[in-house]
Write a structure and sequence with these properties.
Blueprint lengths: L4 H4 L7 H7 L3 H23 L15 H29 L1 H5 L10 H35 L7 H24 L15 H37 L4 H39 L10 H30 L19 H6 L15 H20 L8 H8 L7
Length: 392
């Protein structure tokens, strides 16, 4: 799981609230983390592998949105590997981890492992948050026709730059003046918690706003194709809206427990003695949410693939072949067709008018197809293969 408490635990003079959760059934907690991360890792890879029975088609033009979705999954996979490695060492070598609890100037490997593994997990999940924010921005810009593959370079600079900068800044302030003599008190740790939870809160607050505006822009874009809003267009707009809702639902499910747990632990830290009887229910709630975090945080990778692509099935095709990206199947069905000719038929320059209409229709199809990936099963697959739907 990803929590700033992992870095705080690396300080020998850690606070009592961190000591409470980190010493609560460490073997059981590490086992829960390994199990959840392993299941999520295997299912995520299974989701991303090509499947048998999918007919190869011509690869359409790539999009920045599809690249971002893949990068989010990669961050979750690498973060899950970090969780598995850290938890495995904690279970297999308890004496190695116990050396962190004392100031041992001759053996810095336990502290180095504690800091390195915690930073690896925190950095990758933080980068995943920034990529998810970039996806919301890119979705809006794509509909506004202001984005493209060139913007992915800017997204890389922003995502990795901010993730590394905030992580290093938070760690530096947390371990000041040194790892073996961290400052006592909550105040010196607050910047670290802010830099950790800033991208998470950004996604929670800003992404729903951007998604809502994107859905509104999609409706306007679809209406502008023929000047009317048909049932098929309404259905496509609803698909995109549901897809955005699934993404935010997964994010809230996986990370709301972190916010609750951190609020409880901060409240306990402010108390003179966290072991007092009136605080028993507060301690129990903190420990319960701590275990929930160990289950839900690593599961984000698999749950996101369900929100992105839907369930892709078990039948894996290990033979390499160039295949169509599922979420861009719509753009190939409209390429080269004048599906939506101009409703106004000018007597002069009629060929130029049709050419412009075709170009606008194709640009609209490309923008919409980048947002409607993942709906390729059941009745929806049959609908998309019908002649009526081929115009979308």
């Amino acid at each position: 799981m990803a929590s700033p408490r992992l870095e705080t635990y690396c300080c020998p003079n850690r606070d009592a609230a961190t000591q409470l959760v980190m010493n609560f059934q460490p073997e059981v907690f590490s086992g829960v983390c390994i199990g959840s991360a392993s299941i999520s890792l295997l299912l995520t890879i299974l989701q991303l592998l090509p499947k048998k029975g999918q007919s190869p088609r011509k690869m359409p033009k790539a999009s920045s949105s599809s690249t971002i979705l893949l990068l989010i999954s990669i961050c979750d996979i690498l973060g899950g590997l970090g969780i598995i490695f850290r938890s495995s060492v904690w279970i297999g070598f308890p004496g190695f981890i116990a050396n962190i609890s004392v100031v041992n100037r001759t053996d810095m490997w336990p502290s180095a492992f504690c800091v390195g593994s915690a930073m690896w997990i925190q950095l990758l999940y933080s980068a995943g948050f920034w990529w998810l924010f970039c996806y919301a921005v890119d979705s809006y810009l794509v509909v506004r026709r202001s984005a493209g593959l060139s913007t992915i370079v800017l997204y890389h600079m922003m995502t990795w730059g901010l993730a590394v900068m905030l992580c290093v800044e938070g760690i530096t302030l947390l371990y000041y003046p040194s790892l073996s003599s961290c400052e006592n008190g909550v105040e010196h740790a607050i910047p670290h918690y802010i830099t950790t939870y800033a991208p998470l809160l950004l996604v929670l607050v800003v992404n729903p706003i951007l998604f809502r505006r994107t859905v509104s822009a999609v409706a306007s874009l679809l209406k502008g194709r023929q000047g009317i809003y048909t049932e098929n267009e309404r259905r496509l707009g609803t698909e995109i809206q549901i897809r955005f809702f699934k993404i935010m639902l997964v994010f809230v499910i996986c990370w709301s427990s972190n916010i609750v747990n951190e609020s409880l632990l901060f409240y306990l830290e402010m108390q003179p003695d966290i072991n007092e009887m009136p605080l028993k229910n507060m301690r129990s709630a903190a420990l319960i949410t701590w275990i929930i975090m160990g289950v839900l945080n690593p599961m984000q990778g698999f749950l996101f693939t369900l929100a992105f692509y839907g369930w892709t099935g078990w039948r894996v095709d290990l033979k390499w072949r160039k295949r169509e990206i599922p979420w861009e199947s719509l753009s190939s069905s409209t390429a080269g067709e004048n599906t939506y000719p101009s409703p106004v038929n000018y007597q002069s320059n009629i060929h130029d008018s049709k050419k412009i209409s075709t170009t606008d229709s194709q640009q609209t199809d490309e923008a919409i197809s980048m947002l409607s990936e993942g709906n390729t099963s059941g009745d929806d697959r049959a609908t998309r293969s019908s002649p009526i739907y081929q115009g979308w």
